[in-house]
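Question: Send over one sample?
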Amino acid sequence: MNPLNQELQKFIKQSEDFDFQGLKVQACYQGQRVVDIACGKTYSFYDIASLTKIVFTTLWFLEHSLCDPKILQRKVQGILPWYPHARVKVGQLLNHSAGNDWWQPFYKDISTSLSIEQRYQQMEKFCRQAPLSNGKKAVYSDIDFYLLGAIMQKLEGKPLLMIWQRLKAKFLGASDFHFNASNIRHRKLGDYAPTENCPWRKQVVRGQVHDENAWALGGVAPHAGLFGQIGDLFLYGQLIRKVWRGEHKILQRQDLKRFAARSMPKDQGDWGYGFMLPSEEKASAGDFFSKKSFGHTGFTGTSFWFDPERDLFVCILSNRVYPTRENKGFVRLRPQIHNWIFEHLKGRA
């Protein structure tokens, strides 16, 4: 193990905020993998939670921009005639400015005895009935992404799992990202990191998506549900870096720059289209990532951040919600890891 990895491992293990099972970290600087560590008890596959939003859904809209450059400006109602709010545009769903609530416990009303198609029909009904607020601030909302998933299915004419399989083969074929469709595991139980001791499911969740709504939808959703290895997330980072540098044969740099750019004033929120931007205070990417940085976090203890100005991306996978989501140390430790990596690489610039 190189000295940089050894030092970062030591830093994490000595942190008072390392109060969860374990984590894996990989980082790429100027095209080279410079960090590759595992601390504590780790596993092959992790529930990447809301990183599904950028690995799957945002990637799909980035691809779709090739044939529909004005997709962000299109009215949702023009694609989904059943949607009742005429003013809402696709871009407002991607940057969470449509006015939807942050979350609703739809899983309590979705009948898991129904087919997947019928469950999505139930979700369509819930989204139709969901009220919009008139607030000016962006509200990070899974409901936005349920609607984006409905748009994807309408425009491609296929269910989400088939859309993902095509998208993965095209852009992330070397990865082992997968949905456990119908909550049937694709790998051995021991390969998956456990997440929460779920009071609703009355078991430790392992190999099933942690998010309750995604679970009720059969494990495949536009906002959560993907499982992956740290190397898979690194491959995604390489894809994003390649597109940003204009080196990808299909995806276009100008489209990624449009999706990753600030889409609203700072007082309304820190969002591009699908991507988080670093906030002024308590950014999960730490204190040193540039204002051009973009990425996302996942509730289970996952994150991806790319700083194109420094040509640096950092991938983190953990199961910080095991055995309970009350574990808060990871949220404090994550920006410290980004700070540490940045400070130890700046001398190489």
Q: What stands out?
A: The first strand starts at residue 22 and ends at 29. The radius of gyration is 19 Å. The chain has a mean pLDDT of 95.
